[in-house]
Task: structure prediction
Amino acid sequence: MLARATPSLVCSLIVFFLQQLLAVIDGLGKDEARQLVNQVDTDGTSVLMAAAAAGNVRVAEQLLQRGAQVHTQNVDGHTALMFAYNGKSQEETLLQNYHQYVQEQQQEQEQQEQQGQAKDGIVLLVEEAVRSHEALIALLLQSGADPLVQVSE
Result:
């Protein structure tokens, strides 16, 4: 079933599980919490990386407050900052493609109304996702993430 899930559904599930994880962490001691927020999966992807990929600033802030390490790299050499930047780039591409699609539809229908001037719900949603990733990038940089880290080859 997950193979058919949309990216937004997957991100929503990630955010839900991250929020549940934070609730568990809050019940632990400081050292146990730090260990838990810095655990990685089999690919070396950390919880902070997952929050960055999902574009969730609030969860990333809470993870950093609980000791999440910004310099952790997965097996491919990716950091949370790279995940946040990649997510921002994907959202910007989605927004550009959507704008192009709307313009093409308007030209085909030869509408003289200014439909392209008003932002619909999809545009607003994607713009908010871009802003979230931008805020995440700023947060990770403020927390000491190194923008010069290279991807492992």
